[in-house]
């Protein structure tokens, strides 16, 4: 219990929310964030470090300040993910729904994350991304592969989406914010 | 700040309770601590030691995170130590209690404090420090050049 948690309390008063985007490399994390923020998505290159986007977003008439952390997902970088867990309110797990060969890997990585103590209080949003591709699996199929129905430790939700068309990105984030808000903010 | 607060400045209930008084005292201490020469020097020496590793690109290098963690530990440790030595029987938990109970906190001190724990503010400060170091050494080079020419 230090100064840090005091400041965190203050930030809650300002409706600040910290979201962490994770997933395998090439899942579309950076594209999702940029698309959500209304930025150009034509020149995105693989992430070797991390990006932070700060954006104001209104849900149910309340304005929230979202701090979105997007960290590289290459296997060599995954051991660094832990450095970004602290104070995370919402975890956004992005899946390349067309990358069938790596779904097992994807499931394993998510399972490990959900066992992390420092993410215990975070709400989970799964984006079954790249739905614009004809070979993409449905969000129900992804849900089953990720075994989400057996997940009892976190609030979770899965949505089919496409970072290219923008489909369901706002809907997903809105759900996430509502779930977080109900937990940590007293809205009046 | 939530939209709902737009109808008026959020004003915190002014009461004469012991709590408000104590909080004022602590906030005053914090203000004195972070405005002190010692604190400024502490920050500056950390900045100068690490700023050359920072680059002005949107994507951040993973190593920034370690540096940022060191920085927040240094800053927080210093403030907490100073608080304990200035206020007998100071206790972080009690302080946090006070803050949770209060409606809102005077802006400036906490805005400043928040910049010490906010990564993007930290990165900006590092880039600033780097720039001023580089400007400084460029000026020094100019100076040396002039000396050489005139000798
Ligand atoms: N077709 C399609 N391609 C996408 C979608 N989202 C991302 N991509 C592409 O997938 C590749 C990896 O995206 P990126 O955002 O860098 O993935 P990251 O490694 O998870 O950050 C890029 O070529 C993107 O253009 C999507 O919804 N549909
Ligand atoms: Mg990326």
From TrEMBL, chain A:
Q: From the record, what ranges are coiled-coil?
A: none
Taxonomy, top ranks, is:
Eukaryota, Metazoa, Ecdysozoa, Arthropoda, Crustacea
Q: A single Gene Ontology molecular function, please?
A: GTPase activity
Q: Domain of life of the organism in this record?
A: Eukaryota
Q: What keywords sit in the KW lines?
A: GTP-binding, Lipoprotein, Magnesium, Metal-binding, Myristate, Nucleotide-binding
Pfam families linked: Arf (PF00025)
Q: Where does the chain bind Mg(2+)?
A: 30, 47
Q: Which InterPro entries match?
A: Arl2, ARL2/3, P-loop_NTPase, Small_GTP-bd, Small_GTPase_ARF/SAR
Q: Name one GO biological process term.
A: vesicle-mediated transport
Its name, as the record gives it, is ADP-ribosylation factor-like protein 2
Q: Where does GTP bind?
A: 23-30, 73, 129-132
Say which species the protein is native to.
Answer: Penaeus vannamei
Q: Is Metal-binding one of the keywords?
A: yes
UniProtKB/TrEMBL annotation, chain B:
Q: What InterPro entries does the record point to?
A: ARL2BP (IPR038849), BART_dom (IPR023379), BART_sf (IPR042541)
Q: Biological process GO terms, please? A: maintenance of protein location in nucleus
Q: Name one GO cellular component term.
A: nucleus
Keyword Nucleus annotated:
yes
Question: What keywords appear on the UniProt entry?
Answer: Cell projection, Cilium, Cytoplasm, Cytoskeleton, Mitochondrion, Nucleus
Q: Which residues form the BART domain?
A: 24-134
Q: Where in the cell is it found?
A: Cytoplasm, Cytoskeleton, Cilium basal body; Cytoplasm, Cytoskeleton, Microtubule organizing center, Centrosome; Cytoplasm; Nucleus
* PANTHER family to which the protein is assigned, alphabetical: ADP-RIBOSYLATION FACTOR-LIKE PROTEIN 2-BINDING PROTEIN (PTHR15487)
Q: Which family does it belong to?
A: Belongs to the ARL2BP family.
What's the stated role of this polypeptide? Plays a role as an effector of the ADP-ribosylation factor-like protein 2, ARL2.
Protein name, per record: ADP-ribosylation factor-like protein 2-binding protein
């Amino acid at each position: 219990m230090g100064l840090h948690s005091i400041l965190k309390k203050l930030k809650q008063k300002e409706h600040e929310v910290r979201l962490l985007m994770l997933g395998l490399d090439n899942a579309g994390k950076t594209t999702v964030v940029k698309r959500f923020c209304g930025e150009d998505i034509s020149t995105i290159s693989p992430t070797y470090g991390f990006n932070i986007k700060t954006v104001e977003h209104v849900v149910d008439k309340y304005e929230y300040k979202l701090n979105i952390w997007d960290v590289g997902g290459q296997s060599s970088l995954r051991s660094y993910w832990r450095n970004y867990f602290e104070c995370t309110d919402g975890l956004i797990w992005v899946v390349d729904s067309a990358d069938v060969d790596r779904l097992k890997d994807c499931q394993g990585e998510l399972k490990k994350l959900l066992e992390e103590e420092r993410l215990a209080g975070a709400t989970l949003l799964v984006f079954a991304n790249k739905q614009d591709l004809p070979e993409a699996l449905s969000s129900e199929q992804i849900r089953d592969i990720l075994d989400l129905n057996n997940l009892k430790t976190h609030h979770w939700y899965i949505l089919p989406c496409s970072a290219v068309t923008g489909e369901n990105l706002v809907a997903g984030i809105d759900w996430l914010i509502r779930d977080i808000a109900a937990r940590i903010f007293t809205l009046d | 700040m939530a939209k709902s607060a737009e109808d008026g400045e959020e004003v915190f209930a002014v009461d004469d309770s012991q709590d408000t008084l104590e909080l004022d005292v602590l906030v005053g201490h914090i203000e004195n601590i972070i405005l002190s020469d010692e604190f400024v020097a502490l920050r500056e020496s950390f900045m100068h030691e690490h700023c050359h590793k920072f680059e002005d690109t949107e994507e951040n290098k993973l190593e920034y995170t370690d540096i940022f963690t060191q920085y927040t530990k240094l800053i927080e440790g210093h403030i907490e130590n100073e608080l304990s030595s200035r206020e007998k029987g100071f206790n972080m938990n009690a302080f946090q209690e006070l803050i949770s109970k209060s409606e809102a906190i005077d802006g400036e001190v906490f805005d400043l404090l928040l910049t010490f724990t906010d990564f993007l503010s930290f990165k900006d400060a590092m880039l600033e420090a780097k720039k001023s170091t580089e400007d400084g050494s460029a000026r020094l080079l100019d100076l040396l050049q002039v000396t050489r020419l005139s000798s």
